Amino acid sequence: MNLVGIILTIYIWGVVCILLFFLFAIGRFYQQKSGRRSYYPSFFIPIALFALAAIRYTFLAPAIVGDVWGDVMRFLGGVLVGGFGLFLLRLMIGGRS
Fold first, then answer.
1. Predicted TM-score (pTM) above 0.90
2. Helices 68-93 and 2-34 sit at what angle, rounded to 10 degrees?
C-alpha cells in the first residue's frame, strides 16, 4: 500500500507541475508576441515548491498533510501561482474586468 501511495503522490504532483508549465508557456508566448513583459520565468518558483513538497511527501506516503515544511511549500506555491496567474490574466486582458 505504501508503494501505491508513493506512486500516486509523484504522479499527481507531476501532473500539477506540468499544468503549471503550460502557464509558463502561455506567459512566454504572450511576451514574445505582444512585446509586453510577463515575467514568465517566475512560474518556475511554484513549480519547484510543489515538486519539492511532492518529494518530501513521498517519504510519508499514506499521509497527505501533517509535514510542516511540505505544507508550507504547498501553501507558498499556491499563493504564488494565484498571484502570478492573476498578474498574467490582468496583463493579457489589458486591465479590463
1. no
2. 30
